[in-house]
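To illustrate the input format used throughout this study, we show a single complete record. The first block contains the structure-token representation of the backbone; no residue identities are included at this stage. The design step must infer an amino acid for every position from geometry alone.
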């Protein structure tokens, strides 16, 4: 076996020279394959490029029949080349023709070659093509030769990714990299956004591939690794993550990987083969991703993501790039694509440039999603694979209504979505026209439409939506987006801001409702519960930690000085809890008044009806509170014993069904009898057909997401309430299980030309 002349370093130097020369793309490729063949003492070197139609096309060859270039083709998975592309793994064969996948392409004249080494051309874990060398003799290629060919493949990957080869395409043929891809995830927040990809943790594009001095590069790598390890230690010692189980486990894994000898050795090897430290990180990561991509074990896939994050952090260390620079260079129509992210990180992006958010992971109740909803950004979640397929700057559409994502969409798809956006805008325009109309039904019944809110970013929507006020201010959101408990001053500041923005409109503040699915990383993350939804949450938790409630109540009392303060308690189970809370509030009032503070002119205390136990204490409840609000999200999950966050049973039971409507009716009746205002502030109020049902049951005030106010008002304006009430009386009284109530309501709407 002959030794190769010069080895990988010489080859990389030659490639660098070729890249710098002014050559036509085809000629450059021809010279590259010739150079590789010579360097590796191979009779053949060929490059196949993956097209958008999953065909691998021969783009250049040294040694095979030159007339086969751009004609010889293999499907993904077909032959040795197709197998390499499909598996993203190298094949090193001394007798290729005996391999079961071998396919003979007569036009290439390759039958005389026995040994075969093929490596995938990878970029960010995606296969863009295959690079092959072949020899007549039955030789086996050494590990360093495999390594050298992989390194060369990386240079070619850059050429493909930067569009250098695009000019070689025949008309109508697209490379895989520019292929449109459509993903189906889950709808996390409604709206449609068209724009351009901004990778939240952007893969840094490494442009400087070849090193001048390997030892110097190894030293750079060591320094960067050192800083990386320190930054992870810093994160681990931060108070806010120190208590949190999952987040901490991730960081612990990072720390372990950052010290992983195998990883560091592979990085150093790549540098010694001629790459810069950055290019080495990218190469090792690409190889690893491609190999791990095919693993189905969720634990291993999770580890792959950890390694990805780590490699990105290392690249940023090497290139000295921070997130600030990224935010500054944001396009005007940014659609953020990320595996997941913290709520605060989303708030770092300027709102006016955000058009959407696409997440590979996360759930509807993830903090980042709650914040995105508050900001009114369309969100699709659980969009698997999008991060590795998307490049910064790619055109992308996120459809938060359907949970779909279109990456690099074709013209007609884009046009269809643009039409959808225009349609929505026209509808919004219509709702804006309705904004200042009184919210009164067709037969003159007044129904107050309030909005739900929780952060200061929600506030502008109070004026924009024409809501009558804020029916539910979820104070816990401020706690959820913070890294530590918000101080009393910060709480007071927010409440003051809310009240100022609301002006004359009433605001109902709900005391902090944490626990269940709303976890504060710095607080109850440490509390392990078997059934958190039924556990230590909301009023239960705040009564056990009176300091927390006292601080909040004091901040609210001070912020509402000189005006009405409406306070609402979440998850009340026993009337005694209201007495306890009232005692604490009264004590705070006395304390502030003793110290000469101005107080609210009026204090109204309400309770949420979320726990079924209250249904058998409705008279006592109404005798105790100034108002009540049905939290239909929780009440429904407890009445039906159906976890509100469990997608498996998400659509199984219908709130517009006999048992739940009877429950609601009973609550309305109890409120009327005691002359206590009763409202409803769960998601049910925001869906037009259910809002219609609620009005038919007798609700005269409901609170919903701001975006729902327009559609609900449009429905209300056409609604004959008297007629609907009669229908609902019948529906609720009818024998359970006989009627499809939803269908009956739809029919009623259709018969009366009510827009749903
Ligand atoms: C509810 O449960 O309906 C409610 C409004 O509260 P949350 O969704 O915040 O639990
Ligand atoms: Mg609730």
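Output of the design step:
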């Amino acid at each position: 076996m002959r030794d190769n002349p010069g080895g990988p370093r010489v080859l990389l130097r030659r490639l660098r020279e070729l890249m710098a020369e002014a050559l036509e793309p085809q000629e450059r490729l021809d010279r590259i394959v010739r150079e590789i063949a010579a360097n590796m003492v191979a009779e053949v070197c060929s490059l196949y490029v993956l097209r958008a139609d999953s065909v691998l096309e021969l783009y250049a060859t040294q040694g095979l029949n030159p007339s086969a270039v751009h004609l010889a083709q293999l499907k993904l998975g077909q032959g040795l080349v197709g197998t390499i592309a499909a598996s993203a793994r190298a094949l090193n064969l001394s007798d290729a023709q005996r391999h079961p996948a071998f396919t003979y392409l007569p036009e290439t004249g390759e039958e005389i070659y026995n040994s075969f080494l093929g490596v995938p051309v990878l970029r960010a874990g995606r296969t863009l093509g295959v690079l092959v060398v072949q020899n007549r003799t039955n030789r086996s290629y050494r590990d360093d030769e495999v390594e050298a060919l992989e390194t060369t493949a990386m240079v070619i990957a850059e050429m493909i990714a930067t569009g250098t080869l695009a000019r070689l395409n025949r008309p109508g043929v697209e490379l895989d990299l520019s292929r449109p891809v459509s993903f189906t995830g889950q709808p996390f927040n409604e709206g449609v956004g068209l724009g351009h990809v901004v990778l939240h943790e952007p893969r840094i594009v490494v442009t400087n591939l070849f090193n001048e001095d390997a030892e110097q590069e190894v030293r750079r790598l060591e320094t960067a690794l050192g800083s990386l390890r320190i930054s992870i230690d810093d994160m681990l010692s931060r108070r806010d993550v120190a208590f949190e189980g999952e987040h901490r486990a991730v960081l612990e894994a990072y720390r372990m990987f950052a010290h992983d000898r195998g990883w560091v050795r592979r990085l150093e090897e790549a540098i010694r083969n001629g790459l810069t430290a950055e290019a080495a990180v990218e190469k090792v990561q690409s190889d690893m991703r491609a190999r791990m991509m095919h693993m189905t074990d969720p634990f291993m896939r999770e580890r792959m993501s950890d390694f990805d994050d780590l490699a990105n952090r290392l690249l940023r260390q090497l290139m000295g790039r921070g997130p600030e620079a990224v935010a500054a260079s944001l396009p005007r129509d940014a659609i953020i694509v990320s595996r997941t992210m913290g709520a605060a990180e989303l708030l770092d992006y300027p709102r006016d440039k955000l058009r959407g958010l696409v997440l590979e992971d996360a759930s509807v109740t993830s903090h980042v999603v709650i914040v995105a909803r508050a900001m009114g950004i369309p969100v699709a979640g659980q969009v698997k694979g999008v991060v590795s397929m998307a490049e910064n700057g790619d055109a992308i559409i996120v459809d938060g209504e359907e949970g779909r994502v279109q990456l690099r969409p074709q013209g007609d798809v884009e046009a269809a979505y643009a039409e959808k956006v225009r349609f929505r805008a026209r509808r919004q325009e219509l709702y804006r026209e309705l904004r200042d109309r009184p919210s009164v039904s067709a037969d003159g019944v007044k129904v107050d439409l309030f909005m739900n809110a929780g952060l200061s970013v929600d506030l502008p929507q109070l004026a924009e939506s024409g809501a009558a006020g804020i029916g539910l201010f979820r104070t816990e959101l401020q706690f959820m987006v913070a890294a530590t408990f918000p101080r009393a001053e910060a709480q007071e500041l927010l409440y003051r801001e809310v009240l100022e923005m609301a002006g004359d409109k009433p605001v109902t503040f709900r005391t902090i409702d944490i626990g269940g699915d709303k976890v504060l990383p710095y607080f109850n993350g440490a509390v392990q519960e078997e059934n958190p939804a039924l556990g230590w949450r909301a009023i239960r938790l705040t009564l056990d930690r009176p300091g927390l409630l006292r601080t909040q109540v004091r901040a609210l009392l001070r912020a509402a000085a000189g005006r009405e303060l409406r306070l609402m308690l979440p998850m009340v189970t026993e009337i005694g809890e209201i007495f306890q809370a009232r005692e604490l509030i009264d004590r705070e009032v006395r304390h502030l008044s003793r110290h000469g503070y101005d107080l609210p002119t009026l204090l109204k205390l309400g309770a949420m009806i979320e726990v079924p136990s209250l249904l058998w204490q409705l008279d006592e409840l109404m005798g105790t509170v100034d108002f009540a609000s049905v939290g239909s999200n929780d009440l429904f999950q407890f009445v039906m014993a159906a976890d509100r966050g469990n997608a498996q049973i998400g659509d199984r039971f219908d709130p517009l069904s006999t048992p739940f409507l009877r429950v609601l009716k009973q609550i309305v009746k109890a409120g009327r009898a005691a002359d206590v205002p009763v409202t409803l502030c769960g998601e049910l109020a925001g869906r037009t057909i259910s809002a219609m049902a609620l009005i038919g049951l007798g609700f005269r005030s409901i609170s919903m997401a701001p975006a729902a106010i327009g559609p609900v008002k449009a429905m209300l304006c056409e609604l004959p309430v008297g007629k609907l009430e009669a229908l609902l009386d019948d529906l609720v009284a009818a024998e359970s299980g006989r009627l499809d109530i939803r269908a009956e309501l739809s029919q009623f709407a259709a018969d009366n030309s009510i827009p749903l």
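Structural context for interpreting the output: The chain has a mean pLDDT of 87. The longest strand covers residues 126-135.
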